[in-house]
Amino acid sequence: MRFSAEEKTEIVLLVSRSPEGVNKSLHSLGIHKRTFYNWYHAYCKDGIDGLAPKSRSKRQWNYIPDDQRELVVEMALEYPDRSSRELAVKMVDETGMYISESSVYRILKERGLIQPAYHSFMIAGDEFHTKTKFVNEMWQTDFTYFNIKGWGWYHLSTILDDYSRYIIHCELCKGMKAEDVMRTVDAAMIKAKIRSKAPPKILSDNGSCYISKDLNSFLTDKYGIDQIHGKPGHPQTQGKIERYHRSLKSVVNLHHYYSPDQLTEAIREYVDYYNKERYHESLNNLTPQDVYLGRGELILKERQRIKEQSLKNRKTAYHIMNCKTGAFGVNISVCEDCGCISIHNNSCRSRCCPMCQEFPKEKWIDAQKENVLDAPYYHVVFTVPEELNSIIYSNQKLLYDALYHAASATLNELSKDAKYLGADIGYICILHTWGSAMNYHPHIHTIVLGGGLDDENKWKETGGNFFLPYGVISKVFRGKYLDELKSLWNDSKLKFHGTAEKYQNSYRFKELLDKCYEKNWVTYCKETFNGAQSVINYLGKYTHRIAISNQRIKSMKDTTVTYAVKDYKNEGCWKEKTISGEEFIRRFLMHVPPKQFVRIRHYGLLSCRNKRKKITHCRNLLGCKKYISTLKNLNAIEMIKVLYHIDVCKCSSCGGNMVSPRKDKYSSSFCAHMRC
């Protein structure tokens, strides 16, 4: 039985004030105790509005935003002849936005834009027993006919590539003779640029023009082509060209033509559309031209990349928008003494959320206390020229890893050189991809230990100054990063999207490398830290930072966002920058790291493999004390108590114990409160 919000409110008030108690009152009303408690919690939180029936359909992380829904509708109105499948693929190719075919269909159906089919579909028969594996392996050819007023019947001779469904050539003929087929084949061989050594096979039916001895001699003697005939009375063998002719006539026959030239022009327009724009489901939603020219795999990889990027960004945005709103569940606690109810909304735990990084940061800082030595530390920044930004963004995981590899190899090589230090050092690398204005600016922050172990396992350091010259760091880092970039290019592992497409050309890519070699790559080093504790605090500041914090956002309007930006050209002064809301979201989502990508990496003495033994050895050599972790093996409640001196298990009103309402002992105390 369903109750309205008013009836639920009346029941809650009646039961809570009943002198018989909750259990007896609910038993007499026939209402389960858990159901009543859910109503009571909702009433305490939101009043009668909390008891109103809610929609069962909740927006999930993959919900399509309203602006994207409107874009689907606009595209459907612009291309009314396209199916939902074709519109979904076209949206990916033209807008770089992934929306599934089923979602497009549902959106159009809600708007009444899905029209019933105006023709019945013919059930396909058996396929040709031998499937082609590459283009120009076998061609299908056939005739179809058209009637021109005042001119009579004309026949269209077509040659279609079996593998790609690409229309190689078609020609309007007055009859259906062997000479017409020969002429069509000649033109197709020229267009396809077929060498006589590797001619395609030709599949046709058993029409009189195709079984002609003249045609057979022509194909064999001139081109060395083997002719294949389909089974009589079985047009499904030539099903691809039969299906093409049906689609062609369903469009071309919608108009009347008064000359062969008019009909020829209409056929040419449809062939261009069929070859270049029409997505074929049997070709993985590629066009025949894409498959025929051999670019199908690249297009499918690009679509997969857009799909993964869109879903990743959509999920991240959903998490941030719904963090601590109750969308991810709530924790309800009730005081055993006074009955005070405390409700805590769960967080999203996304590493890109500005509200969910405090706990991970504190836990990470606490864990690093055991590895910090009473020795100088330096902050070194590795940057790359902005000319590489487009390529790096197109290959994030590969080229982000390359940044770590180049920075690590640079520090290892130079620190082991006796001219500079001659020791094995330790360092931590953190990737940042943003500048102050949330522009794309990939760089590596490195916390470097200013000393290390020499070949005799003795501690060695240079004193108060940084032991590596900036110019040498810059040149070595540049060489190592560009070497890895060239290696990835030679192995064909790089992808090129957007503004990076021009670098697919080897000459343009070489020009880019030459330009990068000529530039001076900026490396920066800050002064040594004052004490180990400052190192720890500084680490936490950089390790768990995201593109922008809530404090930097100054104001928001319906269409614009204003946030604080550091102007490095003006001595680092802060100023305000206003951009559109869409641009703000776009900039923020640019910095969502790849899935399962590790942003904080430890090397040398601080690596997981070395730090247990070697850090202890270094600590003994330096005579420094060991920092003890305070948050290790603590749960969230205990961490809050240690960090913020707040006991969430104590009632803020009376100091009593807060318990979960699901516990058995909760029932009696909660009922007593309601009876008061």
Largest sheet: 5 strands, mixed
> How large, in whole angstroms, is the Cα Rg?
36 Å
Mean pLDDT figure? 85
Biggest sheet: strand arrangement: 3-2-1-4-5
Strand content: 15-25%
What distance separates the N and C termini?
30 Å
**Helix content estimate:** 40-55%
Number of strands: 18
Secondary structure category: alpha+beta
* Number of self-contained structural domains: 6
Note the overall shape.
Answer: flat
Q: How many helical stretches?
A: 22
Low-pLDDT stretches: 117-125, 663-676
Give the gist of this structure:
This protein has six domains: 5-54, no CATH class; 59-116 and 295-321, no CATH class; 138-278, Nucleotidyltransferase, domain 5; 331-361 and 629-676, no CATH class; 373-547 and 595-622, no CATH class; 549-589, no CATH class. Residues 117-125 and 663-676 have low confidence and may be disordered.
SSE arrangement:
Layout: H1 5-17, H2 22-29, H3 33-46, H4 66-78, H5 84-95, H6 101-110, E1 138-148, E2 152-161, E3 167-173, H7 178-192, E4 201-204, H8 213-223, E5 227-229, H9 239-252, H10 260-276, H11 288-292, H12 296-321, E6 330-335, E7 341-345, H13 358-368, E8 377-383, H14 389-394, H15 396-416, E9 426-434, E10 440-449, E11 452-453, E12 459-460, H16 470-490, H17 506-518, E13 523-526, H18 532-543, E14 553-556, E15 560-567, E16 573-580, H19 581-589, E17 600-604, H20 611-622, H21 636-644, E18 658-659, H22 666-675
Parallel strand pairs: 1-4, 4-5
Antiparallel strand pairs: 1-2, 2-3, 6-7, 6-18, 8-10, 8-13, 9-10, 9-17, 11-12, 14-15, 15-16
